[in-house]
Design goal:
about 400 residues; mainly alpha; 3 domains; three-stranded antiparallel beta sheet
């Protein structure tokens, strides 16, 4: 059984060090907490090992996955049920075994593949690295935080809430997308339709088959190719950089990143995990490359005994309100209470932005479709007049 070297603080505030045997880091952390110890470090056993973008050799990756991803509500179901089972005291191996018949088929296959490693003491966050498209780095980082702190059930519940809100956003945007998509298609079909009057239905059907349908198919193909390209790791990294500098481009994404960061910090702080490790993992949980880099640097500064206020000063991903609250917590030592309030506020803000984003998206769709609609109406009317004029002599007595 693996040996874990630890440094911790006992209930009397005294520093302790020693070793503990456990099948995994998560179980080692649980054992220490059961003794009333507040964990500081677990040396040489990869404490707080970051979920990275590096892929293991047997990774499953498909360039076409973005065309048919696992739906957010399916992922929400997986993590919600996993959280309930873990909270009830069911082991991670038994939980994944029992969920194989209750979740999406692709997720069930993955759970079946990783179950043997889980039964041998493997950690969920590391095993999921084989499937980076379904379990992105920020999800694995939150799971790693749960394993490090012994609060994997709380981490799963937080992930489930995030995916549930993402599903709500997709549902609310679905009808506007369909409606405005149909509007654009009709804008392509309508301008030539009046020529049926003078040139006949056969001419229009030929025009439809030779010109209009290929144009529509080309636009759909461009959208699908765009989804694939934007999901590529290097392209996504560039998009992250742009969104980070222009947060109004993706208000839900940025607020979700901040909420995940604070939730991860809160989970780890409650368990007494070393602050540099907590900040480092929280940066990974953000899921935005610039925030990961900033918080990694901040963690290194904190480890060098630089005050938290100064270490976080250059972190643009955290608001001034968050930095101020953490500065106060540094003076009082009440990090857990401060992070609890900040986490609740960040989660509430993430939920409230959904309705604002839906309204803003509808107005944006309306603005973008107004121009093609106006052009279609103009050319449709012109075609109608020209068609009437072509047949005018035939209709005159």
């Amino acid at each position: 059984m693996p040996q874990f070297e630890y440094e911790a603080i006992d209930p009397d505030g005294q520093a302790q060090a020693g070793t503990v045997e456990a099948d995994s880091r998560m179980l080692a952390a649980v054992k220490l907490r059961e003794r009333g110890l507040h964990l500081q470090t677990l040396k040489e056993q990869r404490l707080g090992r970051l979920a990275t973008d590096e892929r293991p050799e047997d990774v499953e990756y498909s360039v076409f996955y973005p065309l048919s991803p696992v739906a957010p509500h399916r992922l929400a179901e997986l993590y919600a049920q996993l959280a309930e089972l873990l909270e009830a005291g069911v082991g991670i191996y038994e939980a994944t075994e029992s969920l194989q018949g209750r979740v999406d088929k692709r997720l069930a296959r993955i759970l079946e593949e990783i179950s043997p490693q889980l039964s041998a003491g493997g950690e969920l966050s590391e095993l999921m690295a084989r499937y980076p498209q379904i379990f992105p780095v920020h999800v694995r980082a939150m799971l790693s935080a749960g394993e490090t702190s012994g609060n994997l059930d709380q981490a799963c519940a937080a992930i489930a809430a995030h995916y549930d809100e993402e599903h709500q956003l997709h549902q609310k945007l679905r009808l506007p997308k369909i409606y405005y998509g149909l509007v654009l298609i009709f804008c392509i079909l309508v301008p030539t339709f009046p020529w049926i009057i003078s040139r006949g239905l056969s001419w229009y059907l030929h025009q439809l088959a030779v010109v209009l349908v290929p144009v529509i198919a080309g636009l759909i193909a461009m959208l699908l190719i765009g989804k694939v390209v934007l999901a590529m790791p290097h392209v996504k990294a560039v998009v992250d950089d742009i969104v980070f500098r222009l947060p109004w481009l993706a208000p839900f994404g940025m607020r979700a990143a901040r909420a995940r960061t604070l939730q991860t910090l809160y989970i780890l702080t409650r368990a007494g995990v070393d602050l540099p490790v907590s900040v480092n993992l929280a940066g990974q949980a953000a899921g935005v490359r610039p925030m990961r880099a900033e918080l990694r640097i901040a963690a290194a500064r904190i480890r060098e005994q630089i005050p938290v206020t100064q270490a976080l000063a250059d972190c643009r991903g955290l608001s001034d309100q968050v930095k101020g609250a953490l500065a106060t917590a540094e003076q009082t030592g009440l990090y857990e209470e401060a992070l609890g309030r900040l986490t609740e506020a960040a989660v509430s803000e993430r939920r409230n932005v959904i309705n604002r984003l839906v309204i803003g998206s509808m107005l944006t769709f309306l603005a973008f479709t107004a121009v093609p609609v106006a052009i279609a109406v103009y050319f449709g009317y012109s075609a109608y007049v020209d068609a009437i004029m072509e047949r005018f002599e035939e209709w005159m007595p």
